[in-house]
Design brief:
The strands form two sheets. The chain has an eight-stranded antiparallel beta sheet with strand order 3-2-14-13-12-11-10-9, with no helix packed on it. Strands 1, 4, 5, 6, 7 and 8 form a six-stranded mixed beta sheet that branches. The protein has about 210 residues and is α+β, with helices and mostly antiparallel strands. It folds into two domains: about 1-30; about 30-205, YmcC-like fold (Beta Barrel). It is globular, with a radius of gyration of 22 Å. Helix content is about 15%, strand content about 55%. It has helices at about 1-25, 35-40, and strands at about 30, 50-55, 60-65, 70-80, 80-95, 100-105, 110-115, 120, 135, 140-155, 155-170, 170-180, 185-190, 195-205. A hairpin with a 2-residue loop joins strand 4 and strand 5.
């Protein structure tokens, strides 16, 4: 009987802790990943894209060989030498096998692409409309250049496509073409005046 009472007491304590944690979390602002972003950038295991390098004609296959990972974490505001959790957000990480790029992390702001040389670049900010140039860091700029109802690449039409650009000073620039339900179609990387472009030849996206 004493064991049963002790067990019930422990269960009540754990329940109270869980409720307190839920209440604390519910009082924070929640930043989910929108369905719009998921349609653009969330792809499942078995998806692949085949690209060709315009300089070397090298063909690279990028594929997803594991289920994307999803978790939640707090958004931390740094101010007055203190860390304050101001909300929490969904995060999804996709790992790619290939040479052009190796992973992508998606949060409510948009996707961050990681290249094989460990360069990180955010290539879509849904909060900023077409044609608006914004500076999100003193050294970086982002531009949403154009939207295409249809975009012809290698004799294939892709619908609801976009063209964006990110630059670091005048030395490094990235341009991206991507389409809803299709993923990245074309990537141009310019470093110190040397341009390299990867263009999709075929793809098999799974959502």
């Amino acid at each position: 009987m004493r064991f049963k009472k002790s067990f019930i007491a422990i269960l009540l304590i754990l329940t109270c802790i869980g409720l307190a944690d839920c209440k604390k979390k519910s009082s924070l602002e929640y930043y989910p990943i929108s369905d719009d972003l998921k349609q653009l950038f969330l792809y499942q295991q078995g998806s692949y894209w085949v690209y060709q390098n315009d300089k070397s004609s090298y063909i690279d296959s990028i594929y997803i060989n594991q289920t994307p990972k999803m978790w939640q974490e707090g958004i931390i505001y740094l101010g007055d030498n203190t860390k304050t959790i101001t909300g929490y957000e969904d995060i999804i990480q996709i790992s790619f096998n290939g040479k052009a790029y190796k992973s992508s992390t998606i949060d409510y702001l948009g996707p961050t692409l990681v290249f094989s040389d460990s360069v990180h670049t955010i290539y879509y900010y849904p909060a900023f409309p077409q044609g608006q140039l914004i500076v999100f860091d003193p050294e970086y700029t982002y531009e949403y250049i154009d939207h295409f109802d249809s975009l012809l690449i290698n004799n294939h039409y892709y619908f609801d496509a976009m063209h964006t650009k990110e630059a670091y000073h005048d030395t490094i620039q990235f341009e991206f073409y991507f389409a809803r339900h299709q993923g990245l179609l074309k990537i141009t990387k310019s470093i110190a005046g040397v341009d390299t472009t990867w263009t999709v030849l075929r793809c098999h996206p799974i959502q």
